[in-house]
Write a structure and sequence with these properties.
CATH topology of the largest domain: Rossmann fold
Order of helices and strands: EHEHEHEHEHHEEEEHEHHEE
Distance between the termini: 49 Å
Number of domains: 2
Strand content: 15-25%
Number of strands: 12
Low-confidence stretches: 122-127
CATH architecture of the largest domain: 3-Layer(aba) Sandwich
Helix content: 40-55%
CATH superfamily of the largest domain: Response regulator
């Protein structure tokens, strides 16, 4: 049974979400102290976190930053505010998805299932844990990329995007194909969200001098370049 940590201060909505998710055999926990969310997160050790943006004490962006300092657990944001920048900020902070309130519960369930499949199932089906790419070692299970310059840890979205691109190295992968692979059904995700995730991946890779190997092919998609061995 997957454990979900729901950071939502609307008591009525919290219980409604909890009851709906219980029907799908998810175990849902709430927050008892909104000034100490990270402590409760560490104690619960959830498989997925759902965070509302507007919260007492500190907003959801703050708690996402705190959680991301020591965990890559998948995070889904909720927001009742009609601000496009909220979604962009969420993705830049390492969130895996974003849901605008009010939402249909079928959409919430679909997004939760897609994230859980992506995060916890793909590595079981992928027999290759390590991949050497342009002098760097990509560890799909640990979500890390390491070379002589250093080592970076990627979010689940970022490592999965990199995995798909490397499976098709030196070939263009269309945006539509990436969206379907990542979210199972591209009706539930915006085109801009994919752009944010790829840009964030490239920015992380730039930290170890690999950013230039993820190319944007305008109007077509993305490509992971792989240099030929000189040996």
């Amino acid at each position: 049974m997957f454990k979900i940590f729901l950071i939502e201060d609307d008591v009525t909505l919290f219980h409604e979400i909890k009851e709906r998710l219980a029907q799908w055999s998810y175990e849902v926990y709430g927050v008892t102290d909104f000034s100490n969310v990270v402590k409760e997160f560490s104690e619960r050790r959830p498989d997925l976190v759902i965070i509302d943006i507007q919260l007492p004490k500190f907003d959801g962006f703050h708690w996402c930053r705190m959680i991301r300092t020591h965990s890559t657990v998948p995070i889904i944001f909720l927001s009742s505010r009609d601000h496009p920048t909220d979604m962009v900020m969420s993705m830049q902070l390492g969130a895996d998805d974003f849901i605008q309130k009010p939402f249909h519960f079928d959409v919430l369930i679909a997004k939760i299932q897609a994230v859980l499949r992506r995060v916890y199932n793909y590595s079981v089906e992928q027999p290759l844990q390590l991949r050497v790419w342009n002098g760097a070692t990509v560890d799909f299970l640990k979500s890390t990329v390491q070379n002589e310059t250093g080592i970076i840890e990627l979010s689940k979205n970022e490592i999965y995007i990199l995995k798909i691109l490397l499976e098709n190295s030196n070939q263009i992968v269309s945006r539509e194909e990436l969206m379907k692979e990542l979210w199972s059904d591209d009706r539930f995700i915006s085109d801009n969200t994919l752009t944010v995730n790829v840009n964030r991946l490239r920015k992380r890779l730039e930290e170890i001098d690999l950013g230039q190997f993820i190319e944007t092919k305008v109007g077509l998609g993305y490509m992971a370049k792989e240099q030929e061995s000189t040996e």
